[in-house]
Amino acid sequence: MSKLKAAYQTLLNKWHIVIAHRFFWPIFLIVGLLFSIAASTFDILDLYLQLILIYVGINIILTVSLNLINGYMGEFSIGHAGFMAIGAYVASLLTVNVFPQTANMFLFPAAILAGGIAAALIGLLVAIPSFKTRGDYLAIVTLAFCMIVKSVLENIDAVGGPRGLLGMEKLTTLPWVFFWTVLSLWVIRNLVYSKFGRGVLSIREDEIASDLMGVNTRQVKVIAFVVSSFFAGIAGGLFAHTLQYINPRMFDIIKSTDILIMVYLGGIASIAGSILGAFIYTILLEILRPLGVWRMVFMPLMLVLLMIYRPRGIMGLREARLFIPLRDLFASKFWRQKKKESGDASAGD
Amino acid sequence: MPLLEIKNLTHRFEGLCAVDDFNFTIASNELVGIIGPNGAGKTTVFNLITGVYRATEGSIYFTGNELVGRTPHQITKLGIARTFQNIRLFKELTVLDNVRIARYGQAIYSPMEALLHMGRYNAEEKRITDHAMELLSIFKLDDAANERSKNLPYGLQRKLEIARALATDPQLLLLDEPAAGMNPNEIKQLMEFIGWIRKTFQVTIILIEHQMRLVMGICERLVVLDFGATIAEGLPAQIQNNVKVMEAYLGKELVK
Amino acid sequence: MVYIFQQALNALQLGSIYALIALGYTMVYGILTMINFAHGDLFMIGAFFCFLIAFYLKLSFVPTLLLTMIGVAFLGVVIERLAYKPLRNAPRVSAIITALGVGLFLENFTLALNPYPQHVPALITDQTWTIGNVSISSLQIIIIVLSLFLMLILDFIVQRTKAGMAMRAISWDKSIVPLMGVPVNKIISLTFAIGTGLGGAAGMMYGLAYPVIDPYMGIMIGWKAFISAVIGGIGNIRGAMIGGFILGSVEIMVAAFLPSTYRDFVAFTLLLILLIFRPYGILGKPNPQKV
Ligand SMILES: Nc1ncnc2c1ncn2[C@@H]1O[C@H](COP(=O)(O)OP(=O)(O)OP(=O)(O)O)[C@@H](O)[C@H]1O
Ligand SMILES: [Mg+2]
Fold first, then answer.
1. Which domains, and CATH codes, for chain C?
2. Which fold has domain A24-337?
3. Nearest CA-CA distance, residue A336 and chain B, Å
4. Mean per-residue pLDDT for C46-50?
């Protein structure tokens, strides 16, 4: 038994050395990208599995970006689907109406990016009401926002009104989804482990104390909202070019609730949790598809049980070591080493 | 020039006058105590200085800057830091992060650099992390750096709160009942500790406290509040024998 | 003039339904500071109970109303006990999400049992009077009068009875009330019973006025009633009534001048504007945080 444990320890240590290596992430990226390109060009995975993986990716982007607001910042937004809608519509309008059909392959990332930027600009607007400190203020504001987006889209004939928008090519491929997913994870993880990210966390813990410790809480909230809505927009664009059809009703509160479930299933304030939540939920939905309507009964029930028995989710407030910068992970250890080195000479206190 | 100068400060909560025409000055390197019965308005004075509430009337000058109308983080940046009567640490965050958050204003890099972990990010993060660890090791908290702060014992939480306040590089430190919940032995240690902080960090201190032993032992000057008004001011020895103060604490009848 | 009068009557009808539902939101918020997002779906359940009772038991109006209210109130209390009570000391976000989950559950569960929209039988002989060109139906009168009657009873309970006093005490300060011997759990159950019972009554009246009912009917109307509660000042009972009538009037006015598809847009924009200028609604008061 103890032998097994020791073996596990050495393995774990090796693993830590591997992930700490400078080239770990670049290599992971290249391998992943190559695999996803190969999977989609050489029929390694069948189309159905590819589609599921695409949805997993999109859901990871949605989950990790909502986690920034609901998990890391501890505010409560139910308007994420609204940002997604903006990204979906902007990107679709660009590829269908603006960009020349022949160049779509190359301009696709630009369309997705434009969708993200549009959503980010709107996110900037929604950030302003969040300055008011009041428990559920933001829940109400984002709810209203989501409804307004939906009814505005329904009333604009140029985007198809309630009938929605058709004619997108299937431009979302596995490699692109892989790229955007990794980008969103990387950027949000970077943000979390910076002074702004710590500001976000401190707002969740105690906003007044945070302000009193010198954190510019307004600045921090704006950054969090802009980044979060940017990636919701990105996910929206990818979603529209997977389904090749969108309408305003797809982006209502029920969609937001889906994302909420993934956040609270995987775990609040955790990158690993976001990945886990999106993965489990997407797969579960597929597995339970034969249940028909009863699947939709089961899902909310799961959310309620989750809230009662594990309100922070599987990885709530914890992070896989993979995502923690070494400086943070080994802060004490590094410090002790440093003290030892200098302490040998001057014997410390 | 005094470090902090408060003139005619008044604050009302819907009719209740919590601070009434309060005047106060403190020079660099002084240690002044504010005492008074429960509900006298002591904490409210701290809240007004640090910008949590906006004063109804009056003005507060700190190193020549008017504080009324500024937000808490702007005031912190000018060099005022505080602790809280009820500990308000960032409970779920690590001890290290609690201190590093207080160095928000000292880490210089843009949001873009943060998102991409590029540019000044690395050097600045290293700098503030080292500084935070340094501070923690001065407070003998460095071994707990990766612990969640809620897991620290009560006494250490109080210590960490002071360390966090000092991490903002203050000139003026406001301590709100630092001895609350401590036994006489711990209070004795705390007295030495406060004196030591004052020397080591060269800070001016205003201290709210109910524990007379502590107040009388370390404060150079005392201000007594009752119902928001200043009823006495002077050296600890003078305050100790002041009739008005005894009345405020014990009630008029008892004193007679 | 006649037109205005006619529209005012319509506004009164819509407003009283909104107000009745808004009361449920506001009462629960007042006592638990929790947004019970499942409330709109309890309204829907009210409509379905009414349908079941009227269709299968063939009862008349008053017994149907009473049974519907009791049934929905019972469901409300059960939901509170099973889903919300375990979360009373959890972060508030958990409770809100649970409420969203319960709401979705009620919708989809109803849908799973009953995949087709249903038709509520008419319980009242429909009669229309015309007074100087303004037409008014018996149903309209019943909806308005009954709503006002229920609201008056509620106001009496909250202002004049011991239980009502306890409710107000709890929403005033949760920490000291248990010390004074108030049975907090009972009062919370009572609040849920009354709030959801009123929602059930609203569901029934809505079902009578617009007889085709479906499991998703509670979503939009629930949100609208919620807006009403926020407009009036969430947590404030009289505010909820005022908010309901305001929103009802605004919607009828919008429908009179703009295409009806703009109704939701106007309602939610109104909410946003109000939140910017009066974050605590018309009658609500901020509760400042002590430091
Ligand atoms: N946010 C607030 N809203 C309304 N009244 C308040 C608020 N904060 C403080 N008060 C009231 O102002 C008065 C002064 O309160 P304060 O907290 O300053 O007293 P204190 O001297 O610090 O008392 P203690 O020794 O108990 O800490 C008290 O009557 C208190 O109830
Ligand atoms: Mg105090």
1. 2-277 (1.10.3470)
2. ABC transporter involved in vitamin B12 uptake, BtuC (1.10.3470)
3. 8
4. 96
The answer as to whether B159 is a domain residue is no
Question: Considering chain B, what is the average pLDDT of its residues?
Answer: 92
Neighbouring C-beta atoms of residue C63, cutoff 10 Å = 12
CA distances from residue A240 to A91, A197, A278, C77 in whole angstroms, order as listed: 8, 30, 18, 42
The answer to whether position B86 is within a domain reads no
- Which chain C residues are within 8 Å of A151, Cβ to Cβ? 261-262, 264-265, 268
Q: What CATH number does residue B237 fall under?
A: 3.40.50.300
Q: Which uninterrupted H or E stretch holds C253?
A: helix C237-257
Name the more confident of C52 and C286: C52
Q: Both B239 and B138 in a single domain? A: no
Beta carbons of A308 and C87 less than 8 Å apart: yes
Q: Determine the structural domain holding residue B55 and report its residue range.
A: 4-79+170-255
ipTM of the complex model: 0.93
Q: How far apart are CA C60 and CA C62, in angstroms?
A: 6
The binding-site residues of ligand 1, defined as CB within 6 angstroms of any ligand atom, are: B 13, 16, 18, 36, 38-44, 85; C 288, 290
Number of structural domains (chain B) is: 2
Give the phi and the psi of residue A267 in degrees, each rounded to 5. 135, 135
CA distance B103 to C233: 39
Maximum mean pLDDT: which of A7-11, A100-104, B32-36, C157-161: B32-36
What interhelical angle do A80-93 and A47-67 show, nearest 10? Answer: 130
pLDDT in tens, B176-230: 999 988 888 989 999 999 999 999 999 999 999 988 888 989 999 999 999 999 9
Q: Tell how far CA A64 is from the center of its chain.
A: 2
Comparing alpha-carbon positions, the chain C residue that sits nearest to B84 is C291
A137: tokens are 């203020």
Region for residue A43 given its phi and psi (left: phi exceeds 0; alpha: psi -120 to 50; beta: otherwise): left
pLDDT the model gives residue A338: 87
- Identify which of B19, B34, B44, B207 to mutate to test ligand 1's pocket (most ligand atoms within 8 A of the CB): B44
pTM of this prediction exceeds 0.90: yes
Q: Are C189 and C73 in contact (CB under 8 A)?
A: no
* DSSP strand pairing (B65-66 vs C118-119): unpaired
Residue B161 lies in a domain: no
**CA-to-CA distance for C122 and C50, rounded, in angstroms?**
11
Quick one: pLDDT at residue B252?
Answer: 63
CA B131 vs CA B109, B126, B128: distances in Å: 17, 8, 5
Helix or strand run (H / E) with residue C64: helix C61-79
Residue B162 lies in a domain: no
The pLDDT tens digits of the residues spanning C225-234 come to: 999 999 998 8
B103 φ/ψ angles, rounded to the nearest 5 degrees: -105, 20
β-pair partners for B173: B81, B205
User: Do residue B175 and residue B207 come from a single domain?
Assistant: yes
Tell me, in angstroms, the distance from the centre of ligand 2 to residue B144's CA: 29
Residue with the two structure tokens 């000291």:
C176
B249 Ramachandran zone, left/alpha/beta (phi>0; psi -120 to 50): alpha
Using most ligand atoms within 8 A of CB, pick from B17, B38, B43 the residue to mutate for ligand 1. Answer: B43
Domain coordinates in residue numbering, chain A: 24-337
- Angle, CA of A235, A238 and A244, to the nearest 5°: 135
Selecting from B114, B144, B167 the residue whose C-beta is nearest the C-beta of A190 gives B114
Helix (H, G, I), strand (E, B) or coil at C36: coil
Task: Say if residue B175 is in the same domain as residue B123.
Answer: no
